[in-house]
## 1
Amino acid sequence: MSSSSEASSGSIMDLAGDDIERFHAHRTCHIIVDSCADFDPDVVNQLGVEVIEFPYVIDGVEHFDGSWKSMTAHEFYDRMRKGARATTSAVTPGRYLEVFTKAAQNGLPTLYMGLTGGLSSSIDAARQAAAMVKENYPGFELYVLDNLCPSAAAELLSIEVVRLAGNGLSARELYDWACDARYFIQGYFTLDSFSALAAGGRIPPAAAQVGGKLDIKPELSYDLNGSLTLRGMCRGRKKALRAIIKDFKENYSHDSSLPIAIATSDSEKDGDWLEKEIRKEPGCEDVVIIRSQIGPVIGSHVGPGMVALVFWGGDRREKISLTDRIARKIKNSK
């Protein structure tokens, strides 16, 4: 499976059985996601969910982040390689109000799973809009979930939510399940350079220059709030990729019924290498691996050359530090 279309076509069908209509037959709720889950187009079409598209601007022209409709991933990242600046903005409360109002008028209980507040303020806008809709439609069931995990991690969460919805779970049951399940999705990734992070103000330009000169490649993940976290620094790309595989071996759930995701920003060869290494692991020979491209919104901040491996693993809450545990207890007691 070397291309995203080959990797994903049939993958959800494998999970759902041979009849996609039966997959959706018992769904009793409406599911809304957003484009920052970086879905492969074939996957999102088979899931049958509504997608809210995030806006982005490149070369002064506004586009919307939805399945690479206006340009291909290669075209987008090639522009970035040539110096084009891509910028993003949050979804407005007005847009969420429009989507949620339409859902309320249809009357079906609705679950929205949005990009983590650790990376965007959009989830706050969604909550504001949801509160207004509930005032106007007091009997309408609407749940807003911060998925606490970005990119393909949110894609994996969405797949399982849709599968459970197909088994007849209600919107409330899906919300409660996802509130816990989101902590069991683990993701590790590396970048080709620090340039995009520096351009977006996420790291100092001087640090980006030093990293480039020393061929430093970071291994990153995300914390319990969905914010990016640095796991380590590697000399060279191959060492960073090996560090990702090491974390996979240590944290993978070894449940072959759950798919694995590999997402890249125009760096398919490295994605191929990760997939070959995964296939060498016991029990992973036939596991579904979904391949997708990092969308332009997240891609604007990480740049070309990102490679991410996402999978179901152990509970990430069990690995937090003592100080984080104390802080969480204090927060929950308020």
## 2
Amino acid sequence: MAWIIIGAIVAVLGSVTVAQSPANTDPAPLSARNPAPDGAMAAAEILRQHGVTVTESDSLATTTSLLAGKPGATVLLYDRNGYLDSAQLHSLLQSAARVVVVAPGLRTLTGLSREIHNAGVVPNGTSTLEAGCGQADPLAAGRVSSKGALLYTGAEVTCYRPSSNDGGMYAASADGRLVVLGSTALLSNDLLQVEGNAALALRTLGPTPDLVWYLPGLGDVPNDAGPPTLNELAPPWVGFLGLWLAVLALLAVLWRGRRLGPLVFEPLPVVVKAVETAEGRARLYQDSRAVSQAADNLRAGTLTRLAKHFRLGPESGAHAVLDAVSRKVNRPAQELRMLLLDHRPRTESELVQWAQSIEKLEQEATAA
């Protein structure tokens, strides 16, 4: 007898382990096999306990096949990536007795209904909302979580409005075949037990004995669907605007082209003094910190003036000028060469000291 009891316990533990193994779970948000906080395993299990047959699907073909055998079934649709196009969504709505779509984007919502439109999100600071309508399911559920939920407007039935001027978090068509829930938190494992979330989720998904839990996948993307071209994205008036801009550009070319022509050189009626030119160039050198260029100009000017003073002629080189200066001031030519030719100031202070030295040398060489 003891071995039978131990065997039964081992069998039960093994079954629980297999049921909770990663192979039987799905990490996708709002999946009926996802036990994580963003999953919806708890809602699916509670629906099963209340007699609702929950069948999971991850493709449109599987969902259509299931609906063919269960014409009165409800479909829970959560297409967070917008895989389905308008034709697929219209076909799904026609095949199911009732479609409950959770947090649909613009593409999904437009494919399901032309009357219901996105109306923004619940304002920050609003964590719960009251039903605020006469619809049976929201009225029975009462207050629900609303943080970060989407709002919708244009439906025959709109509940859970943040204010009278806003859309609602719950929207339904007049015949009740399409219900829009603006929050995934209502079905999530994390917040299902908060406020009236569970009541609203179970009453919305459980009115029929069969529920197809459909999360579209990449396999549902139409084969001919590709990224829209620029012509498809652009509004119709862009073509006319482009032609109009081309005409304006041509007129601008003609207008400006008439004013352009060959440059005409005319003498200016002013005389710029040499000292002003020298001071202006010196300021430019100072602003750009061109120490080397300024030193080269000072060196060239000094050699030119000394060659002119000693009447050496234009063909004489720097060494000839230095030899003449050496004889005049009675200093070695090598020392003068180091001072005037080889010395290269690197900073502005060195440049000033060097300029004073060569100026003093020029004064000594040209003194009578």
## 3
Amino acid sequence: MKRPTLEVVAARAGVSKSSVSRVINGETTVAPQIRDVVMRAVHELGYVPNGAARNLVTRRTDTLALVVSDPPQGVVSDDPLFSAVVRAVSRELEVAGKRLVLMLAESDQSRTRVEQYVAGGHVDGVLLVALHGTDPLPSALARQGLPVVSFNRTSAHDVPYVALDNAGGAALAVRHLLDRGRRRISTITGPLELHEARERLDGYRRTLRDTGRRSIVALGDFTRVSGAEAMRQLLDDDPDLDAVFAANDLMAIGALRTLRQAGRRVPEDVAVVGFDDIEAASYTTPALTSVRSPMADQATAAVHLLLGLIGGGPSNPVIMPNELVVREST
């Protein structure tokens, strides 16, 4: 059966070919009654637009890139929440009739390939996950004039973003520990070259400073191993500490192991709070109190912001609220 053409649709609808083209390409200047008769003819005939030809007219590819600028050790892509981000982005783009391209930028060479691919006009916009403040990719992509939305704040001030309230979430955790009567509250940070790690440390420090208490800090790298090692360091440095706020759940899980090995009861001797509320947080012994990061909601908001930018909408940043999920570890 011969594929119906634009001319056949126009004849069935009783309008000009140019009117059909404007309806198919989503132009808003078409009268509602014209749009109705054209769409009725489209459905009756089973007309499918020629995507390649339409893209030449609209200069759209209906494809968006999810670019993850991740160091070789995989801080982002190894995060248990990353799969939730990919699923949420895929779901929202499918609803919007868009395709998704996933790209990893782990080195200077791969970042160059990402820049070249985007500059080649293969995508309409970019969703960017780049945690390092010195990462050159956000600025490089923004200079190309293509809509870009970051999953967190970047050093490129012209890149709109959807970010977690990292400092506010850390403050929630510390205030909860204070309300539980804890007085020597330590923290295990993430790698401080990452925005979210610095923001969570700032929230911890500011909250303790407001109560006249000193900070007790050990460095981690968002892995279980680093959490276990940092907890050992904290116990050596301050054996009387009675609480720890870990900047993510993986490090908190490592800290729980060290505390158990050291004969410290949780929460009787040391209370523990994590950040992210990954699935494993509710299965630790004891179950882990954690600051919930609404990653799926963040991904959905980022897609909506990017689609709005592509359509000429505003670029206002979005900050996602956190909530504390209280379990047995505090």
